[in-house]
Design a protein that fits this description.
The protein is of the alpha+beta class. 46% of the residues lie in helices and 14% in strands. The longest helix is centred in the middle third of the chain and has 18 residues.
């Protein structure tokens, strides 16, 4: 799966990591619903860090279609809320 972090680029991520990412996504969704900004910041950073750690960066000049697009690290809670689907940022 190709994942884009807005403002950073793309990484190739093995589908086997979706379960781990979905756990963080579920936490993020709960924190957003409760309006807990501090917890949202921590979990959002952990989600992006997991994508970076588990994925392999693609070259900057690669233009692969992204299967998943995540907000930039400095995105606000409101901006992330706008990008959410019913099941969070990570489908599944």
């Amino acid at each position: 799966m190709i994942v884009r972090i807005m403002g950073e680029g793309q990484v190739q991520l093995d589908d086997s990591h979706i379960v781990e990412l979905n756990k963080l996504d579920d936490e993020l969704l709960a924190e957003m619903e409760s309006g807990d900004e501090a917890a949202f910041r921590r979990t959002f950073a952990a989600l992006l860090d997991a994508v970076r750690r588990l994925g392999t960066p693609l070259p900057d000049d690669a233009l692969e279609p992204s299967e998943l697009i995540l907000p930039s690290p400095d995105a606000s809670l409101a901006e992330v809320r706008e990008m959410l689907a019913d099941d969070g940022l990570i489908p599944g």
